[in-house]
């Protein structure tokens, strides 16, 4: 697994496909992450929320697979939690919207927020495709991850 900016050189076609999710939101790709001193696309975006909870909240019938990454497998100095607590886009990348990563505290980020469920419902009613991780705390990891030994869950 590679951060988006690394994919540009490693797998250009996959990079182009992946960056398309930022269409109309290209400015996100230029935002700097406090504590890690890098761009939004220089990190992997992980979540502690189980994919079955996201699938259920979306009311999705689609089946997919997800990697299971043990919290202590991430290097603490390369990891930060984006809390997604801002109400104003201008406050998105302020230090108060981030927390130092502690693998023993990952469980506190494992519940899908009520506001995310409400957003999914609103987007469904509009017939629009939602962004999957709106208001979901992100675990941001400034490195690639070898997936060859990771557990895979089917959802």
Radius of gyration (Å): 16 Å
The portion of residues assigned to helices is: 10-25%
Ranges where pLDDT stays below 50 over 5 or more residues in a row are: none
What's the N-to-C terminus distance? 19 Å
**Mean pLDDT metric:** 93
The number of distinct β-strands equals 8
- What would the principal axes of the Cα set say about the shape? globular
* N-to-C SSE string, H for helix and E for strand: HHEEEHEEEHEE
For the largest beta-sheet, the strand count, sense and barrel status come to:
4 strands, antiparallel
Which sequence of strands runs across the widest sheet? 3-7-5-6
Helical run tally? 4
Secondary-structure-derived class: alpha+beta
What number of structural domains do the residues give? 1
Strand content: 15-25%
What is the subunit organization of this protein?
A: single chain
Throw out a few tags for this protein.
155 residues; alpha+beta; 4-stranded antiparallel β-sheet; 4 helices; 8 strands; globular
Question: Could you explain how this protein is built, in words?
Answer:
Helices cover 23% and strands 17% of the residues. The protein is an alpha+beta fold and 155 residues long. The strands form three sheets. A four-stranded antiparallel sheet has the order 3-7-5-6, with no helix packed on it. α1 (4-10) runs antiparallel to α2 (12-19).
